[in-house]
C-alpha cells in the first residue's frame, strides 16, 4: 500500500532531518516545497523570480504559486508508490487544495506526522544549521556535526553552506509567520483523523524511533 505522507512542523523542527531517514527506509520521493523554491531561485527560472522576494524575507510564497508546483509534482509517476511532503501545506487554503489534488489523483493521505518543538528553541537551531553543498544533507553546529569534521557523512564532500533565510534577521519573521498558521493546520488534520504528534525536542535518533514506530504501524 502506498504511504502518502505529510511531515509537518515549524521551521527547524527537524522535518528535513527526519525526511532523510524516512526516504532511506521507505523509498518514496521527498517533496520539499522549500527545496523546490531554492532550486528554482538558484537556477534563475521564472518560478524562482516569483518566489525570491517572499523567501528572502521569510514570508510565504502565495498559495496559487505553491499549490501549482505541488500539483504538477504529485502528478508525476514516481509518486505512485507513495510520497513525502515536507513544508506543504502551510496554510488552510493549501490544505484544501491538497485535498482536491489527492482526490483527483486517487492518492489519499495516509498520515500527517507533526514534529512538535517549542518555538523558543528554534532560533538557536536554525541559526546553527548548515547544509552539504553537494547532496543537501543537514547538519548543526550545536547538535549534529558530521562524524569527520568538514566531511559530509552522506556523500563525502567537503563544502557546506548556510541558507540565507537562516541568518538571524530572517529567522524571527519566518517563525512568526509559521507559528500563526501551525495551530489551525494541526486542528485541520486532527479533525480528519490523520494527525500523529511526535516530540521533536529529543535527540535526532530518538525522534526517528518515534516516527518509524508510527510509520511501521500504518
Ligand atoms: P526543518 O526541515 O524542519 O526546517 P531541519 O531538519 O533542517 O528542520 O533541522 C533544523 C536544524 O536543527 C538542523 O541544523 C538540524 O541538524 C537540527 N536538528 C534537527 N533535529 C534535531 C533535534 N532533534 N535536536 C537538535 N537539533 C536538531
Ligand atoms: P522551508 O525550506 O520549508 O523552510 O521553506 C523555505 C521558504 O520557502 C519559506 O520561508 C517560504 O518562503 C517558502 N515556502 C516553502 N514552503 C512553502 C509553502 N508551503 N507555502 C508558502 N511558502 C513556502
Automatic annotation (TrEMBL):
Domain Adenylate kinase active site lid, residue spans: 129-165
Entry keyword tRNA processing: no
Positions contributing to AMP binding: 33, 38, 59-61, 87-90, 94, 163, 174
Compartments (UniProt record): Cytoplasm
Swiss-Prot/TrEMBL catalytic activity: AMP + ATP = 2 ADP
Residue sites binding ATP per the record: 12-17, 129, 138-139, 202
Pathway: Purine metabolism; AMP biosynthesis via salvage pathway; AMP from ADP: step 1/1
InterPro entries from the UniProt entry: Adenylat/UMP-CMP_kin, Adenylat_kinase_CS, Adenylate_kinase_lid-dom, P-loop_NTPase
Reported function: Catalyzes the reversible transfer of the terminal phosphate group between ATP and AMP. Plays an important role in cellular energy homeostasis and in adenine nucleotide metabolism.
Subunit organization: Monomer.
Protein name: Adenylate kinase
Annotated organism of origin: Lentilactobacillus parafarraginis F0439
